[in-house]
Amino acid sequence: MIRFYFHPTPNPAKVALLLEEAQLPYQVIPVDTSKGDQHKPEFREVNPNGKVPAIVDTDGPGGTEVRVFDSTAILLYLAEKTGKFLGASTDRPELLSWLMLIATGVGPFSGQAVHFQYAAPAGLDYAINRYRREAERHYRVLDRHLAGREYFIGAEYTIADMSAWGWLDRAARVLKGEDVPLAAFPNLKSWFERIDARPAVVRARAVGQDHAFKRVNDEETKRALFPSNYPDVVL
């Protein structure tokens, strides 16, 4: 059994999709990051960095219980555990390259674009422009790569597609103000629609819907999500 520590945000969504695609048994453990659950000692035992997603696999290598944190590490671990969604062995370098680009580029810059457009104080035009334009640049990189391709790696659907889907699903927030956020990236748009139509995506979207996660962006939420902005918060 896999204990899946979840909040309905892009990085946990990637893992939810793989769990559903691979049809692995799992238990959802809600981590309400707006209430600060990610900073509790019991969760820090699972992920010392205090971020979701994380998993505990009670049937790890040799029957041991193992923890895995960071969405890319989890995708690789579960794909290797099941032997699924890794593509051809000859595509491994390409798979790792795109996974890391998404992990270090698409995700962080998209997240910062969202933060500065929606959560930061007014007047930070430089930061808004910087992260929004970098997010758009990453979208162009993905769009060019997908020209004439059905998936990111070779001819197979892999964890690279799942990883990218998690963030591209939030394109409307990343590219604030765009009526059709992927209109300028036709190859990426076609790819996203193809992935988004998969039955497992419907199931992944339903993960955690039975839990009432906090939706109010009050002072408690800001202190929980952005603790480094508060000198009195020591984690």
Automatic annotation (TrEMBL):
Keywords: Transferase. GO terms for molecular function: transferase activity. Residues 1-86 form the GST N-terminal domain. Residues 88-225 form the GST C-terminal domain. CDD domains: GST_N_Ure2p_like (cd03048). Pfam families: GST_C_2, GST_N_2. InterPro entries: Glutathione-S-Trfase_C-like, Glutathione-S-Trfase_C_sf, Glutathione_S-Trfase, Glutathione_S-Trfase_N, Thioredoxin-like_sf. This is Glutathione S-transferase.
